[in-house]
Amino acid sequence: MIPLKNASIILFDGYCNLCNASVDFVIKHDKKNYFLLTSLQSDASKNILLQLHQKSFKNFDSVVLISRQKIYYQSDAALRIAKNLSGFIKLFYVFIIVPKPLRDMVYNYIAKNRYAWFGKKETCRLPTADDLGRFL
To answer: What is the phi-psi region of residue 80: left when phi exceeds 0, alpha when psi lies from -120 to 50, beta otherwise?
Structure first.
């Protein structure tokens, strides 16, 4: 069982090039090692979702943030992740004031086209030796 009480875990599409670039960005700008990471396709992800009483998660078009046993999807997840990073990206959290349906419309448009625009890997991302401690 993965301890979730105070954890902040990002679940991402391990096949998506945009998602993997975003994970690299998070690792680089998460100076306090606030986030743990795992792909949505992993066993760790399935176990986490089961612990939170989510029977399954088939929507790989959304980044998922688990923070203090709460689940955030789409733009909520992205903005809450940005809020906890160092540097200019933290400023993007101001967009939380934009109504969620509008934010998610933009998020969903990008998510729907991400494979066409950025490509897709044949296999899920594997962490480097340096990043191994960040991944579940």
So the answer is: alpha
